[in-house]
Amino acid sequence: MRLAQFMKPALISALVTGFLLSAVAPVNLTAAASDAEFTKLADEFLAGYFAWRPLAGTTAGLHEYDGKITDYNRASIESELARLRQFEGRISALKPASLGAEARFDWQVLLAGVRGELFRFQEMASYIRNPMTYAGALDLNIYAKRNFAPAEDRLRSIIAIEKDAPKIFAAARVNLEKSLPKPYVETAIEISDGAADFLAKDLAAAFKGVGDETLQKEFADANQRAVAELREFSAWLKQEKLPTAHDHYALGRESFAKMLRESELIGWPPEKILKLGLKQLRAEQKIFAQTARQIDPKQKPIDVFKAIQRDHPTEQGLISDVRKNLEAIRQFVIDHRIVTIPSEVRAAVEDTPQYLRATSFASMDTPGPFETKATEAYYYVTPVEGDWTPKQKEEWLTAFNYYTTDIVSIHEAYPGHYVQFLWLNASNPSKVGKVFDSYAFIEG
């Protein structure tokens, strides 16, 4: 029999009310206090995070950081490392069980984000071991591509940053170890040369309409100096670092496991992940072979694939073909109700900026999660270079065969990264949720 059969409704009400007052309310008050403490700590961390990484702040859409660049002086790097360690301790000291559900989730995300930064400073040693850190420091594309402020104001920000170029590369020469991993050096040289070309050509062209002659003169001087600094850094890498470069760049098992565990919250050992990956690879190879037989049962699968690769855009038609097919993919997603796309703003297909071509086949450049004015989004596709031989051009374009390119477009834009970004903003996450993400989830 139910308890209600033996107790009057008024008595039940009194018991329930008493329980709520004596048990639930204190728990909620405690959780609220802990949540407020965590929010305050998270805000404090993020303020320092962007203060040391102002370009990341601008990219995120926080324009109080416009016109600023990271101080790469050794003392500044050590100070930021100490700050990260301090916050790891303070965040770890909070008891997640005392937090509400959303704050508990953010606590995990923030701690993983802090530990990811510590990994970059310590295990990866990005500031002393990787010259790409400095080669890509003058990434000013956002000032050219996004109209978050009048062109004159954005140009003033660029000038302020470019004036610090000598400091950036002076710090690089002091900070970097004597012998560096060869792939890092080679890629940094490509990035430096590409960045110099971008500043000299694309960036200058983007602001040629600014009519203030004094401002244009100041920009020309600062830009010319920044270009020279990049070219000198590239030459220094070739002369000083390439001859002594080595091939020891692998993280190693323990560091890789730590990265998975602390940055991605994946507790599996690397061996298990490798086993799963190989299992999936074999399954995909089987599907590949079966599909190839359906296309042409007389040919080997690899020969069928080579035939598919020959069906690709021309050098002149690459961007326009990708643009046309991207719109068709977007419409397919809508027509088949695969996922709702919460914006009519299209991802514009454009050539990959010169300085990104050393490390990018195709990529998605979305506005920052805090951006309120400049909502432009760019799907970059890396074209052939004008000085390549016909053979090099053909080899590159085979990778852009229509079938592979559609898959890349699905991954990068619809319903991939671009739609992920749109829903990130539409879901109204916390500051922590907007700033820190999971590489495994995003790319998975």
Oligomer: single chain
Question: How many H/I helical runs?
Answer: 20
Q: Total number of β-strand segments? A: 3
What is the helix/strand order?
HHHHHHHHHHHHHHHEEEHHHHH
Describe the strand arrangement of the main beta sheet, using strand numbers: 1-3-2
**Separation of the first and last Cα atoms:** 52 Å
Strand content: under 5%
Mean of residue pLDDT values = 92
How would a textbook summarize the main sheet? 3 strands, mixed
Would you tell me the structural class of the helices and strands?
Answer: mainly alpha
Helix content: 55-70%
What is the CA-atom radius of gyration, in angstroms?
26 Å
Low-pLDDT stretches: 1-27
Shape: globular
What does it look like?
It is a single chain. The chain has 444 residues and is mostly helical. Among the domains are: 128-247, no CATH class; 310-443, no CATH class. The chain has 20 helices and three strands. The protein has helices spanning 9-52, 54-60, 74-93, 101-121, 126-129, 132-135, 141-145, 151-162, 165-175, 182-206, 213-241, 253-263, 270-295, 301-309, 318-335, 390-399, 402-412, 417-426, 431-435, 439-443; strands at 347-351, 362-365, 377-381. Strands 1-3-2 form a three-stranded mixed β-sheet, covered by helices on one side. Helix 1 (9-52) crosses helix 2 (54-60), helix 1 (9-52) runs parallel beside helix 4 and helix 15 packs across helix 17 (402-412).
Quick overview:
The chain has 444 residues and is mainly alpha-helical. Among the domains are: 128-247, no CATH class; 310-443, no CATH class. It is 65% helix and 3% strand.
Can you tag this structure with a few keywords?
single chain; 444 residues; mainly alpha; three-stranded mixed β-sheet; 3 strands; disordered N terminus
